[in-house]
Write a structure and sequence with these properties.
This protein has 153 residues and is α+β, with helices and mostly antiparallel strands. It is built from four helices and eight strands.
Length: 153
């Protein structure tokens, strides 16, 4: 199966990569109550990385584009919440987790290979496509040759 050429990115290295598979879900799906904290978000990021093994082609470890943390301000008079969350960093990460397999028509390291592929995980505020511009800029900087897996037809 060939990659979907409708969505491609040219990496800073000059390599063109093509979106092959995209799986998305709400970052906080299944989370029932409470206010997001830095430790909850760390767990949610790890969950997204683990999902790549279930949802995407099983290639090398995925590359994570670290999510931007956004501070949460408690409303005036929320003293009970302030006591409950004392000493915790109240932050959220973007609303949508995105897991994707990207392909390249050139190998990463083995010149005898036909292509290379890489799984990348990121978070953005809305469902893709498009991919958020700030995420695209970070994907462009991925060291493909270091992280991608070579493949043969």
């Amino acid at each position: 199966m060939l990659p979907l050429q409708q969505y491609s990115i040219r990496l800073n290295s000059g390599r063109d990569v093509f979106l092959y598979v995209l799986f998305q879900y709400p970052t906080y799906s299944g989370w029932m109550e409470g206010i997001p904290t830095a430790s909850i978000n760390e767990w949610l990021v790890q969950r997204a990385l683990e999902y790549t093994k279930q949802k995407l082609w099983d290639v090398v470890e995925p590359v994570l584009i670290p999510p931007k943390e956004l501070p949460i301000e408690l409303p005036e008079g929320a003293n009970d919440l302030r006591r409950l969350y004392k000493n915790m960093r109240l932050v959220r990460i973007p609303a949508i987790a995105c897991l994707a397999t990207w392909d390249s028509y050139q190998p990463a390291r083995d010149e005898g290979a036909n292509f290379s592929c890489l799984n990348i995980v990121w978070f953005q505020e809305e469902f893709a496509l498009p991919i958020a511009p700030e995420v695209v800029e970070q994907i462009k900087g991925v060291d493909w040759e270091r992280h991608a897996e070579d493949g043969w037809y």
